[in-house]
Amino acid sequence: MGFRESHPRTMKEIELLKELQDIEFLARKTAEEKARAAELRQIIPAPILGHYDRLAARGKKGVALVQRTPTGGVCGGCRMRLATGAYARLLRGDDIAMCDNCARYLLLAPEEPPPPAPRSKARRKGAARAAA
Ligand SMILES: [Zn+2]
To answer: Which residues surround ligand 1, an ion (CB under 5 A)?
Structure first.
């Protein structure tokens, strides 16, 4: 595929949407949280908000976290395995991804992928080996 007009902030928008969702699904919100939610609604593009609101109106969360498994990504909303291509796109983080099954926006779960060396049992915390 050739170059596409790419907006580097697209995945960021889903991160903002997740933040909005986290606030709006709280049973009780502080004034600060309400202000932040209003602010987020100003920032997030209308089409994304519209889709999110349609799902929210039915009591569904519009953003699902994707769990990384050894066999690929699993949608945290409906537990369906993601298509390989959709998961790869998500890992690249260069486009908005949506679950084919439940139509939620997808965001990678924040945990680190497992270390690539399964033989070493001792885990070093914080020591990042940047040089390969
Ligand atoms: Zn799903």
So the answer is: 75, 77-78, 99, 101-102
Query: Which has more pLDDT, 112 or 31?
Result: 31
Q: How far is the CA of 105 from the centre of ligand 1 (A)?
A: 8
Boundaries of every domain in the chain: 10-108
Q: What is the rounded distance in angstroms from the CA atom of residue 125 to the CA atom of residue 43? A: 36
Please identify, in words, the CATH class of the domain defined by 10-108: mainly alpha
Cβ atoms of 29 and 23 closer than 8 Å? yes
Euclidean distance between CA atoms 38 and 89, whole angstroms: 30
pTM attached to this predicted model? 0.74
- pLDDT for 92-107, tens place per residue? 887 888 999 999 999 9
Q: What distance in angstroms lies between residue 81's CA and the mean position of ligand 1's atoms?
A: 8
Express each pLDDT in 7-16 by its tens digit.
455 788 999 9
